[in-house]
Predict the structure of Molybdopterin molybdenumtransferase.
Amino acid sequence: MLSAMNSRPAGATARTVDDYRDSIEQLLRPLAARPVESVAVPAALGRKLAADVSSPIDLPVFRNSAMDGYAVRADDVAVAPVTLPLAGVVAAGQPGRAPLPVGAALKVMTGAPIPPGADCVVPVEDTRADGAAVTVERGRAAGEFVREPGTDVRAGALLVPAGVALTPRHIAALAAVGVPTVPVFQPVRAAVITTGDELVPAGRPLRPGQIYNSNGIALAAALAANGATVVSVEHSTDDPAMFRRLLSSATRSADLVFTSGGVSKGDFEVVKDVLAAHGGVFGSVAVQPGGPQGLTVLDGVPVLSFPGNPVSTMVSFEVFARPILRHLSGLPPVRTSEAPLRESVRSPAGRRQFLRGRLTENGVEPFSGAGSHLIAGMAWADVLIDIPAETTELAAGTPVLVHEL
Amino acid sequence: MLSAMNSRPAGATARTVDDYRDSIEQLLRPLAARPVESVAVPAALGRKLAADVSSPIDLPVFRNSAMDGYAVRADDVAVAPVTLPLAGVVAAGQPGRAPLPVGAALKVMTGAPIPPGADCVVPVEDTRADGAAVTVERGRAAGEFVREPGTDVRAGALLVPAGVALTPRHIAALAAVGVPTVPVFQPVRAAVITTGDELVPAGRPLRPGQIYNSNGIALAAALAANGATVVSVEHSTDDPAMFRRLLSSATRSADLVFTSGGVSKGDFEVVKDVLAAHGGVFGSVAVQPGGPQGLTVLDGVPVLSFPGNPVSTMVSFEVFARPILRHLSGLPPVRTSEAPLRESVRSPAGRRQFLRGRLTENGVEPFSGAGSHLIAGMAWADVLIDIPAETTELAAGTPVLVHEL
């Protein structure tokens, strides 16, 4: 699975995006078997259902009225107008066990039980109340405005299938059949370790050569938005001992670890140096931004190593991690669509490029400037434009595949 | 604004969906002016930004290398191959103040400062290191692989505009320029009161005539999924005193109150009876499901009264409340699209119908059975199919507007 990227000569032998993503997805797929816990339905919004849930009851539970009106025998109102004595009123929530006397009408509210003997409901709009009697102005056939038990949901019928992340409409349906708790998977637990001597936290002034550390914050937000629980976000200097210590703590508490930085071809690559010594595979993927990538299984835990540039990190997450994470969390797949380019674009030969873009009514607008360091474009974009590796130039108007961010 | 629906005769004079939704949106629009609080960027995911945020710094902050390689003067490598003495190494995070000696090369890592005097970077792939010297095999023009300060973001440039709900990409950009906190609106606070003697909580056996109370759970989930904070979910019997007590508590703690049930034409309509006495407007909207609706301003707080049937409640929320709530929360609008019907449908004359449906590759499949009480369809559906009021029948293949749930 961890085929040896780094044993190949550099350059033309970079792995393809699809090949590398497949490797990651194979490694991560076992995380679908997370422990199951029982959660009260109101608290289960967004959680991934661990088993099919069937309705414990018929719905409607009892024959009831679909309208405010009068429960009658259809035969008694076959010739209208007809005036019937009023035998009483049944509100929603009342047992409604008293049978309908022959030739009479019982006033019923929407949802109220239909009394034995009645076989249809005349809506109140088609009647005139007259003290102890009601005049029915239009007859109804047997069954009209009567909801029979189990016509919506039968007891035992599948209501929500295993594997979906519960949305408000699922929660509503589960609540309507009185399901109090559901079995859901515990979310995937993720840990993030950023690296680099040059990184400082927000709110401090920068000294020469320093930049702000954004990858920890950004990856934590992206993980949370895609169904994972972030158990830790730590920063390591380029000191291998510190990185090793944080790694070891991360693999103890998380199902999946992300690192940023320390993976390229420089002399001081703490992530690559430490993880390659534990079997990690580091090398080039034919993608821009985000070429240098690493994949390791450490203490049984997958470790995805992204490059340190903030835009490269976020694009790596979108391309390599987000699709499988959404699957593991039961969330719908990342949306893709096709849209015409509003401007021509150039792309490097041999590398699949993910340009930041924005969907408009007239197509997708690429962010001007293809540098991998364009934070401004990341804030502005709402899609990634997927330019195939073999493409070097696309004219305005060419349809392109876009992935929604 | 609260035009008197109930002063018109019943039937043909029901308000249109658009007209009624406009009334609600006018009432709710002032809720956009919620109090502002300052929140740390990592905790601001999903919050609505209350002011434009501009970059406090140039990005890049300093001239730096776009590649691992050698910082040189372009003139010194104009004729390649050429061997230059190695003057040292600059890692990312180092101040990089030492100038480049004339005719020499400085090894630089990606992101490392470009030393004064150097004007381009030769990627490591185009070089051969040779002890104290490096051989450059391909020359580069001035500026190549050098990132100039401010070329990504200029200090003072708008990074994220006011009014958006912050997504991971916004969080990433804010973190990258070192913004520690952002001003965000407090979420809209919503309270829910369900009504009806016949309702019982999940987990208890049903006695004759009883049904499970799902609307409180369902509305709370739908509100949370659309950016609101649910401050309370209460249930009232049909006792007006109890309902009044819960209402009064809800309007003290919430910006917006939802009620379910007690709005139709029966004899016991606690919501309508109590709120109409406080100026509430109750009447028919030409929609199915969800016709009976009520709108009140009580103690300055808008109260939206939905019918009690669980599907009617959820469709009412989708049609009348969700669009404006998403706007108030800075979330993207409800998605709509057009898709061909996979089966013919019938629809009642004079009422705009929202059928539960499911999008497939070949069009939208309507849930079979148009009754408003079809919980099974609600769990199954992922869109509402919008059938215009004047339409009574649509053939399979007809394109229809769908709203994503």
Chain A has a mean pLDDT of 91.
